[in-house]
Design a protein that fits this description.
single chain, Arc Repressor Mutant, subunit A, two-stranded antiparallel sheet, alpha+beta, about 100 residues, 4 helices
């Protein structure tokens, strides 16, 4: 995969996914699924919740990467790795789509 090309992408959140913070956990919940389908509820770590909050059609991934670097004091490489992995997971479950 071409990392540079991937980082030029922009994503938008699927409107059928809502985020909630419950106690110390951040979760993503599809609102169009049956309530009993707990396999569709995703627990997200601190970096993942930060990325989720930053996803915006107007924001390229390079900008989100820079925000991760500043917020978590990590290298560009580590921020890119976390960002790309998380977004690929979100794409697989249909939580985001490329615009």
């Amino acid at each position: 995969m071409d990392k540079t090309a991937y980082l030029d992408k922009r994503f938008t959140k699927d409107s059928s996914i809502v985020s909630r913070k419950i106690a110390d956990e951040f979760i993503l919940v599809p609102i169009k699924q049956r309530a009993s389908d707990v396999d569709s509820i995703y627990t997200v770590n601190e970096v993942g919740s930060f990325i989720w909050e930053q996803i915006d059609v107007e924001k390229p991934l390079t900008e989100i990467r820079d925000l991760i670097v500043n917020e978590f004091e990590v290298s560009n490489e580590e921020a890119e790795k976390d960002l790309i992995e998380f977004l690929q997971q979100l794409e697989q479950v249909g939580a985001v789509k490329e615009v």
